[in-house]
């Protein structure tokens, strides 16, 4: 509201400055030409002043009318007619004033120079009209650009929200299935897992309104997720985090690492027998936070070849929507190791 009011005041001030600048220049030029023609006789400044006031009044009419009317393309004839009418009006005001307050000599001189005055006034008003049209076009362009940016931001935020919501049901269904399986066999573990799942989902809802959070908060949320998964898989699931303390203050998109960890657990435990270690290595160098999650996998297993890769695709899309880059997610495969690498730019 304050910005719009300031903009309105600035535009009105610019209109006044422009109009009175035209008045001063028109008066000085008219007075100089009269002085040049009649010197050493004394020139009455009222005549050029009346002409300057008339042309200034017409400029105000253009500025005020163009705030409510914007000529469309190819309406040059209409603009020309408007300028001709305003030119006639400015000369009519001058003629009316001269017949009322000046002698016949001044009136005759005015009529002798009438064609030149008509051309000068017409060209001046055309210039004012063109400047005003370009001014309005520029303002309209800025408004359209602002609305477009706001619309794109709304679409981007909606897509980000949609991507996050698509990632949650898969994990939620798996956890609920595990709770159902544990209810009769291990009711205490089922109860524990239910509380952990409740805390995890509550934390997820709290972060919906925060696009970037500290890495320390993301790791805490990730550890809560891993506790739920360890209830499901027992001693088979082992995790380790390696990072220096200074990276904990880095900013990351909320829940950007959890889908990578879920992907690592999915491909690491479902196709590998025995205990599994999932390693997470985090480093910060040259304003770029790098997170690497490594899990074992069997390259010969059909399950791995058939994966949809939706988790990685959605993460890459989120990173593009937030940072505008497509090179922030990559994978590295060896004979029995799979590493997902995510890079998060750290802006000052």
UniProtKB/TrEMBL annotation:
Superkingdom of origin organism: Bacteria
Lineage of origin: Bacteria, Pseudomonadati, Bacteroidota, Sphingobacteriia, Sphingobacteriales
InterPro entries: Bact_2-comp_sensor_kinase (IPR050640), HATPase_C_sf (IPR036890), Sig_transdc_His_kin_internal (IPR010559)
Alphabetical keyword list: Membrane, Transmembrane, Transmembrane helix
Organism expressing this protein natively: Sphingobacterium paucimobilis HER1398
Domain (Signal transduction histidine kinase internal region) ranges: 158-237
One term under GO cellular component: membrane
Gene Ontology MF: a single term: phosphorelay sensor kinase activity
Designated name of the protein: Signal transduction histidine kinase internal region domain-containing protein
Transmembrane segments: 12-36, 48-69, 76-98, 118-137
UniProt keyword Secreted, yes or no: no
Keyword Membrane: yes
Pfam families on file: His_kinase (PF06580)
């Amino acid at each position: 509201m304050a910005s719009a009011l300031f903009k309105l005041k600035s535009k009105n001030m610019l209109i006044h400055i422009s109009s009175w600048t035209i008045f001063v220049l028109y008066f000085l030029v008219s007075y100089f030409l009269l002085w040049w023609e009649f010197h050493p006789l004394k020139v009455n400044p009222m005549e050029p002043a009346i002409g300057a006031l008339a042309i200034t009044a017409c400029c105000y009419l253009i500025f005020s009318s163009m705030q409510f009317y914007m000529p469309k393309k190819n309406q040059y004839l209409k603009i020309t007619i408007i300028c001709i009418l305003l030119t006639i009006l400015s000369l009519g005001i001058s003629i009316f004033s001269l017949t009322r307050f000046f002698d016949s000599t001044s009136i005759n001189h005015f009529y002798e120079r009438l064609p030149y005055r008509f051309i000068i006034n017409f060209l001046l008003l055309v210039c004012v009209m063109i400047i005003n049209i370009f001014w309005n076009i520029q303002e309209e362009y800025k408004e359209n650009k602002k609305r477009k940016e706001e619309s794109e931001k709304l679409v981007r935020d909606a897509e980000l929200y949609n991507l996050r919501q698509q990632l949650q049901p898969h994990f939620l269904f798996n956890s609920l299935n595990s709770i159902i399986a544990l209810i009769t066999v291990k009711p205490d573990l089922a109860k524990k897992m239910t509380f952990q799942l409740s805390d995890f989902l509550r934390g997820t809802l709290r972060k919906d309104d925060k696009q970037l959070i500290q890495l320390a908060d993301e790791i805490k949320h990730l550890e809560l997720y891993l506790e739920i998964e360890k209830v499901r898989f027992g001693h088979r699931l082992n995790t380790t985090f390696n990072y220096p303390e200074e990276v904990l203050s880095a900013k990351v998109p909320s829940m950007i690492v959890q889908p990578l960890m879920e992907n690592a657990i999915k491909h690491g435990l479902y196709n590998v027998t025995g205990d599994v270690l999932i390693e997470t290595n985090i480093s910060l160098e040259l304003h770029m936070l790098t997170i690497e999650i490594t899990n074992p996998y069997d390259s010969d297993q059909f399950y791995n070849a058939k994966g949809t890769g939706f988790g990685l695709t959605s993460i890459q899309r989120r990173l593009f929507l937030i940072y505008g880059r497509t090179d922030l997610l990559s994978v590295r495969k060896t004979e029995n190791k799979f590493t997902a690498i995510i890079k998060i730019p750290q802006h000052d």
